[in-house]
Design goal:
mainly alpha, globular, 77% helix
């Protein structure tokens, strides 16, 4: 690719990223205005005895006495300077709060993603184009996991493996064993979606001439699937994985609550409950940034998986 088209593509990508971040901040700001209740009253707690004068001082301190449009522009100005603001409730910089809670959520998301891809590839390779009964059983289980709410899957796993069998801890993040059930809870719905898409791609690839030629050269069925068909079916899998990974932060809210784990999900829930606008918008911006980065990585992976996409 020549330099000018490359620079144009980079500029287009950066403009799209800025538009996504601006849209995410705007939607989060607007949504929080619709939550009933006065932010200052929520900040002080239900049993507050603060006088109206003290409330007015707090409102002025955070700029909540200004018109909504000015509050919005002031917040955008701070964002442009890299300032996510200070949490109303916790009285600390939002960037510090997110930084402290980010690693447990990253651990959970990466473990869930690795489990989902491993289970999906294994299931799809084992059932694509094979006996109809085995394929139907796999499809039924996948539909069941996709249609089940993640918190319900988490409760079932807790009941079976923590309360009954006592294999894994009920709550917390004290060691690696405490990560297994939360990661599996997030991974199972993703596995269902990914396995169905990959199986369709594999079955299409296995019917193409290159697969027949590979079989005629003496390769086993499994070798053809892993060396040739899987590569052709991987592009839609990578696309879908990128999209679904962006949704893991949203799923982490419920999973971290069910398993009493620290993380961004628990922080988001706390911020939303307390109408802590800077905290919630900071988390929303983080989610949007993760989505933008993942989309870029997915585009790069296309050229690695399919060399034909490197031209043009």
């Amino acid at each position: 690719m020549s330099p000018l088209p490359l620079l144009g593509a980079i500029a287009k990508r950066l403009a799209a990223a800025a538009a996504v971040l601006l849209g995410a901040a705007t939607v989060a700001f607007a949504a929080l205005q619709l939550i009933p209740g006065d932010p200052v009253t929520v900040m002080l707690g239900p049993g507050t005895v603060a006088t109206p004068e003290i409330k007015a001082q707090i409102r002025a301190q955070y700029g909540l006495d200004q018109p909504l449009a000015l509050q919005y522009l002031h917040y955008l100005g701070n964002l442009l300077r890299g300032d996510l603001g200070e949490s109303y409730q916790l009285q600390r910089p939002v960037a510090d709060l997110i930084g402290e809670q980010l690693w447990p959520t990253v651990q959970l998301a990466l473990a869930a993603l690795a489990l989902a891809v491993l289970l999906a590839v294994t299931t799809a390779v084992a059932t694509a184009g094979r006996r109809p009964a085995l394929r139907a059983l796999a499809t039924l289980l996948e539909l069941l996991t996709v249609s089940s709410p993640s918190y319900w899957i988490g409760i079932l796993l807790l009941t079976a493996f923590s309360f009954q069998l006592r294999i894994f801890p009920v709550a917390g993040d004290q060691d690696l064993s405490a990560l297994v059930l939360p990661a599996l809870t997030l991974a199972l719905p993703l596995t269902g979606v990914l396995a169905q898409v990959l199986r369709e791609g594999l079955e299409t690839a296995l019917g193409r001439p290159f697969a027949v030629t590979a079989r005629s050269r003496g390769l086993s069925v499994t070798a053809v699937r892993l060396r040739h068909a899987l590569r052709h079916a991987a592009v839609p899998l990578v696309t879908l994985t990128g999209w679904l990974t962006g949704s893991l932060l949203g799923g982490a809210v419920l999973v971290e609550t069910v398993f009493a784990r620290p993380g961004i999900g628990a922080l988001t829930l706390q911020g939303t409950t307390n109408k802590d606008m800077p905290l919630v918008i900071g988390v929303v911006l983080l989610s949007a940034l993760v989505f933008v980065v993942l989309s870029t990585l997915v585009d790069l992976l296309y050229t690695v998986i399919d060399p034909r996409l490197r031209t043009g």
